[in-house]
Amino acid sequence: MSIQQKLNELGLTLPTPSKPGGNYVSVNIRGNIAYIAIQFPKNGDEWSFKGKLGAELTTEDGYQAMQLCALNVLAHIDQSIGLDRLVGINHMEGFYQATGDWDDAPRMVDGASDLFVNVLGEKGKHSRSIFGVERLARNFAVGITCSLTIIP
To answer: How many CB atoms neighbour CB 130 within 10 A?
Structure first.
């Protein structure tokens, strides 16, 4: 089953890939490794999931926000590389902003990890790092970056 067929089966639609917010590229390819710049929970021009986890947002909100970030990663892969050229996700870095007493980051970041594995199967298995930060751009609650291996 193709990745697009799996997305359809799960009732998922790839959002329109975002444009860079500064002097950088969204997808940087070096040989057979591609790097995806930070992706926030955006669907086209709609900005979602803003604020801090533990205050304005719950862990479940964060989980859903991470799923949307992962869909944005897949949208960039589809547009810039081609889903058929994906060998696998290597590493994901998850970023979040939260109150000082909120401590459910691994569960929240599973939103992206679960989506990658559910859509990509073995290709979606990856290592990851999680970073709590004081503030993310535009007050987004979460964001992710990824590195992946592709067929050159």
So the answer is: 14
Rounded Cα gap, residues 116 and 113, in angstroms: 5
Report helix angle 59-80 to 105-120, nearest 10.
40
pLDDT of res. 73? 98
C-alpha–C-alpha distance, residues 119 and 143, integer Å: 19
Segments of the chain scoring below 70 in pLDDT: none
Domain CATH number, residue 127 = 3.30.1330.40
**For the chain, what is the domain count?**
1
Rounded to the nearest angstrom, the gap between the alpha carbon of residue 23 and the centroid of all alpha carbons in its chain is 20
User: What's the sign of the alpha-carbon dihedral 4, 82, 36, 42?
Assistant: negative
* CA angle at 144 for the pair 58 and 80, rounded to the nearest 5°: 135
Alpha carbon distance 58, 45 (integer Å): 23
- 42 touches 136 (CB < 8 A): no
pLDDT tens for each residue of 79-96: 999 999 999 999 999 999
Domain that holds residue 76: 3-18+27-150
Q: What is the pTM of this model?
A: 0.97
